[in-house]
Amino acid sequence: MASVTKEKLSSNIAVSFTGNAGPNASEGKEVGLVYSCIIIDENVYQYKDIYQGNRSEIRNSCIIDAKKRILENL
């Protein structure tokens, strides 16, 4: 997803997320399981995280971590 987004938007950085932010387990994925991908120029970074909290908290945690990871890898 991140590579398609990067290509379509002609950007240097793209981020994608997939997983389960809840409120219920789905497709065999526990609540809080999130996979993310960050592409910076030609570098690809993939992450698997387990977050705690409600749906909104999990989504916010994903964004906060993505921002930190982008800054770490610039």
Number of helices: 2
Strand content: 25-35%
Number of strands: 3
Largest sheet: 3 strands, antiparallel
Basic shape: elongated
Q: Which strand order do you get reading across the main beta sheet?
A: 1-2-3
Order of helices and strands: HEEEH
Q: Kindly state the mean pLDDT as a whole number?
A: 95
- Low-confidence spans: none
Percent helix range: 25-40%
Q: Using only CA atoms, what is the Rg?
A: 13 Å
Q: How far is the N terminus from the C terminus?
A: 20 Å
Please identify the structural class as seen in this structure. Answer: alpha+beta
Q: Could you walk me through the main structural features you see in this protein, from its secondary elements to its overall organization?
A:
The protein has 74 residues and is an alpha+beta fold. The chain has two helices and three strands; from the N terminus they run αβββα. The radius of gyration is 13 Å and the shape is elongated. The two termini are 20 Å apart. The mean pLDDT is 95.
